[in-house]
Amino acid sequence: MTAGGGRGAVADRAFVWACRLAGVSVLAIAAAVVWSTVGHAAPALSRQGWGFLGSATWSPSQGRYGALALIYGTLVTSAIAVAFAVPIGLGVALFTTEVAPRWLRRPIGAVVDLLAAVPSVVFGLVGLLAFHGPLQRVYQSFAGAEASGSSLFTAGLVVAFMITPIVTSVAREVFETVPQSQRDAAFALGSTRWEMVRATVLPSSRSGITGAVMLGLGRALGETVAVSLVVGSAVHVTANVFEPGYTMAAIIANTFNGEGNLENQQALMGLGVVLFVITMVVNMAARTIVNRSARRSMGTA
After folding, report:
1. 36 inside domain
2. Is there a contact between 69 and 236 (Cβ–Cβ < 8 Å)?
3. Residue 44 falls within a domain, yes or no?
């Protein structure tokens, strides 16, 4: 009995130290990423100063590196993607959990999970080969002859296709955690199906929905291959989203080869730092919103 208790104590201490090591390793990896990227980007950031963030001119031949247009393109394409993906994703999740018959729920869930596993380059090729021409004709019909099939809007649509399964999967799991007793109580009070969803499912799932949206946004901000195929590769700030543009992740993927102009490599690393900071800000905002929603829900309950 004593020997068994001793072995249990040793195993417990080993488990605790293994968990601590795992937690510390995550922090160490994050610190190494920050140290490496900032260290390589520091020379370019110091040379360009605040112009790196405030200038829209990205011209390696002239030694001018301004990230404003690239930041703008990243935010615009991500906003377009979220604007399309969130309503569709939440609608599919609600249909799967609240409307569809049981025999149909499993096939829909399997298809959604399959779409989430499709490589991003496949979405990019579909957007380039199948949608480029038709979308260009549609754009030109109302946006003028300067509209292009390779544009910020097309990139946003392609990314929307990619993040919709993610939003759907997370939202579906969240909706399924709502107790059936709450649904039954709403129906017993005479609520319609939509009134039940609005009064019970959506309020109870507020924090989970926020997490799903932010998860999709984080994926949209960092998407690379699919965007680089359809965004148009034009570094400028334009209010017309049907014109070509560029994003930070796309230009890094297209122009960083580890050789050649050292200053250009350092500037691209600077873009990586900016993208990392934006992603961290988004994640921190998401965590704040989720915690606030959770506290509000507990207070209401």
Report:
1. no
2. yes
3. no
With respect to residue 12, please indicate whether it lies within any of the assigned structural domains: no
Task: Single out the residue of 92, 156, 93, 80 nearest to residue 124, CA to CA.
Answer: 156
CB atoms within 10 A of CB 249: 22
Structural domain boundaries, residue 187: 51-300
Distance CA 256, CA 101 (A): 50
pLDDT tens sequence across 145-198:
777 788 999 999 999 999 999 999 989 988 988 888 888 898 888 888 888 998
Does residue 246 contact residue 66 with C-beta atoms inside 8 Å?
Answer: no
Domain count within the chain: 1
Q: Provide the percentage of residues in the chain whose pLDDT is more than 90.
A: 24
Q: What is the mean pLDDT of residues 26-39?
A: 88
Q: Are 137 and 126 in contact (CB under 8 A)?
A: no
* Residue 232, strand partner residues: 245
Residue 236 falls within a domain, yes or no?
A: yes
CA gap 168, 209 in Å, rounded: 10
* pLDDT of 255 over the 90 cut: no
| Domain containing residue 287: CATH number | 1.10.3720.10
| Confidence at residue 3, expressed as pLDDT on a 0 to 100 scale | 53
